[in-house]
Amino acid sequence: MHNANDCIFCKIVNKEIPADIVKETANFIVIKDINPVSPIHLLIISKRHYNSILDVKGEGEIYGNEIFGLCGELAVEFNAVDKGFRVAINTKEDGGQTVDHMHIHFMAGRRFTWPPG
Ligand code: AMP
Ligand code: ZN
Fold it and tell me: Which residues are catalytic, by number?
């Protein structure tokens, strides 16, 4: 079991604390964000603990493929194919990362602006 002490996402992956689980694959769990910024706000969380995408390194090819595939599936399942969605990976301080366990935001259901704040 890949577990970092006191990591909230590891606890969610290990079902030690509850979450609204949308989907589970071999390497990821998808949950609803507890503090959504859009009508659909999901988190694609790696089952394995990495502090950020910077730590994924050699496994990036597998993860990248799975993440792209999952985004496509979620777009269909959450009815975001026509209007679209936004995917974000906040990384470290300047990226605005607040939970140091690699995750991808999948957001849909409203129009997002660019540039982000
Ligand atoms: P980030 O700021 O990019 O690291 O994203 C962390 C996200 O995790 C935020 O959008 C939080 O609202 C969300 N979050 C934190 N704790 C939980 C939790 N227990 N269940 C679901 N989402 C959470
Ligand atoms: Zn973790």
Answer: 103
